[in-house]
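Before surveying the methods themselves, let us examine one representative protein, pairing a chain with its fold in token form.
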Amino acid sequence: MKILNTSFRTMALLIIVVASSASSLAEDHHHKGDKPPKPDFSSLFEQLQLNDEKRQALSALMSKHHQERRAAHKQSEKNFRDQHQTELGNLLSDEQLAIFGEFMQQHKPPRRKKN
């Protein structure tokens, strides 16, 4: 009986420590206003094997798309997605588009919790 009681205390203490650690780590990363880290696009550019001119064009296009999405947050996202896909298709090959899409999916920031 004493062994069971000690095991229960140990388990309860372990759960409390893990829960409090996880909670404090989550708070460190998700303060209001904190932005997730931006992905390092240099590795994407290497994978896409882009020359300097195309790197600059892709960076400018991605920045433009980001600003348009932010500005049109309340408007239809689908129209922008279609337009952005067309513009990316004009700049990148099909193989490069697939690599780009995979990279962006892997580096997608976590969804924010609604208050």
Q: What stands out?
A: Residues 41-106 form one domain. The chain has five helices and no strands. The CA atoms of residues 36 and 70 lie 16 Å apart. The mean pLDDT is 75.
